[in-house]
Each structure stands twice: as structure tokens, then as C-alpha cells.
Design brief:
It contains 6 helices and 5 strands. The protein is of the alpha/beta class and about 150 residues long. The chain has a 5-stranded parallel sheet with strand order 2-1-3-5-4, sandwiched between helices. It binds D-ribose (RB5).
């Protein structure tokens, strides 16, 4: 597996449809995608899927993950409890870019009930293609884990 080119993605029912679309978007751009579920629009708990994706990133099995729920809030709360996970809830391009440049975010979180498909694709594209700046920002993110 090419770790740098592989992305693990997960959602609950509220963002299942957007997850499927983002999966296709990623595949069409040459990424390898691991889908952690959910598998349908049947009601599930975002916590289970957030843990799967954040756990995989925390353990270093994937360098990058994407999480979606209705607002993105629950997924952010779950993901950011995992060591070495820096999950960024984004609904604007500037935040998506800066979450990489300054925060080296390794999980992008979005709210399927907040943003539309086209904005979601642009957020994903921007986030994946923006590099971490390092330097003083590396010192700062190294202090995040307690
Ligand atoms: C599901 O109804 C909703 O609570 C969930 O998708 C998410 O928004 C939680 O934060």
C-alpha cells in the first residue's frame, strides 16, 4: 500500500451520500480509498465510524483520513481524542488550506448537512494538495499531545 496515496474515509448515515461522492472523487484522482463505513443511510452512531478512522490514523496505518457526519461536530470530538490525530472541521477553503499549512491536520472533517458537493470536493482537493509549513508550527503541534 502506498501510504501517502491512501486515504481512509468514514461517515455516519447523515453524510453517507456525500461520503460516496467523495470516494468517487478521490478514486478519479488516483487515490486509494479505504471505506470504513457506514454502508447505508440507516441510522448509526458517528462515534463508531469516527473511532475506526481516527484509530487507523493514530496508529499510523493511514497518513490521512476524512470524516463526515451531519455537522462534522461529533466526528471532530471523537477524532481529536486519539493521540497524534489532528482533525480539522472545515467548511471554507481558507481553513482547509491553513489546517495543513499551520496545523498539519491529518483528518479532514466536514458536515454533510452543512456544505454542498462542489464545496466538499474543493475542500478535499485543497486539503490534500497543501503541504505543512513546518518550522515553528512543528514545535507547536508537537506540544498538542498531552
Ligand atoms: C446524526 O443525526 C447527527 O447527530 C450526526 O450526524 C452529527 O451531526 C453529530 O455530530
Amino acid at each position: 500500500m502506498d501510504r501517502e496515496n491512501s486515504i481512509i474515509i468514514g461517515s455516519d448515515h447523515a453524510a453517507f451520500e456525500l461520503k460516496e461522492k467523495i470516494k468517487d472523487f478521490l478514486l478519479s484522482r488516483g487515490y486509494v480509498v479505504e471505506d470504513a463505513g457506514a454502508d447505508s443511510e440507516d441510522s448509526v452512531s458517528y462515534v463508531d465510524y469516527g473511532k475506526k478512522v481516527a484509530g487507523a490514523v493514530s496508529q499510523g496505518r493511514f497518513a490521512r483520513g476524512i470524516l463526515l457526519c451531519g455537522t462534522g461536530l461529533g466526528m471532530s470530538m471523537v477524532a481529536n481524542r486519539f493521540p497524534k490525530v489532528r482533525a480539522a472541521l472545515c467548511s471554507d477553503i481558507f481553513s482547509a488550506r491553513m489546517s495543513r499549512v499551520h496545523n498539519d491536520a491529518n483528518i479532514l472533517v466536514m458536515g454533510g448537512r452543512i456544505i454542498g458537493d462542489i464545496l466538499a470536493y474543493e475542500l478535499v482537493r485543497t486539503w490534500l494538495e497543501t503541504e505543512f509549513e513546518g518550522g515553528r508550527h512543528l514545535d507547536r503541534i508537537q506540544c498538542i499531545d498531552l
